[in-house]
Specification:
single chain, about 170 residues, mainly alpha
């Protein structure tokens, strides 16, 4: 899911070594913010996709109902039947992509990243720089990794369920 190789890795460069606890905290905070940006972007995309499918299905369903009421016109009846077929197709597409669940999953990840950033910012603000320790940061980094692990595990679980039910 992530495009980087973890804490301390810059794009195109190896891990940075020998950072002070304050520099490490700032780096970790940047990584948390990147995770939040990732989750926010995916949440928006999945939410828009889910809404578009639902609205399209609703419009086509309503149009087909209205058109079927105009039974005198063969062209309209054909259009209505096409709309019904498209509604059926859209009803099958949404579970395949599972945009709504993926949007909710990203919303949860976004919340967890924001909470983690708040906790780290508070730790940095309330602890003098020379008293900030790697042990304190290791706990935050472990929580950061847990967010990614949970997100990846849940994502794979959704994909496996979709495969079992014929959605993928």
């Amino acid at each position: 899911m992530r495009s980087d190789s973890g804490l301390g890795a810059e794009r195109g460069a190896g891990p940075r070594a020998g950072l002070s606890p304050g520099e490490t905290a700032a780096l970790l905070l940047d990584k948390i913010h990147e995770g939040n940006v990732y989750a926010r972007a995916r949440k928006r995309r999945f939410g828009r996709s889910a809404a578009a499918v639902k609205v399209t299905a609703l419009v086509l369903s309503a149009a087909s109902t209205v058109v079927l009421g105009l039974q005198n016109l063969n062209a309209w009846t054909g259009l209505a039947l096409a709309c019904v077929a498209l509604v059926t197709l859209l009803a099958a597409v949404e579970p395949f992509f599972n945009w709504r669940s993926r949007s909710v999953l990203m919303e949860e990840a976004q919340y967890r990243f924001r909470r983690l950033a708040d906790d780290l910012e508070y730790l940095m603000a309330s602890t003098p720089t020379d008293e900030l320790t790697f042990d304190q940061l290791a706990e935050v980094f472990t929580r950061y990794q847990t967010v990614w692990d949970d997100l990846s595990r849940t994502w794979l679980q959704h994909r496996r369920e979709a495969t079992r039910t014929g959605g993928a």
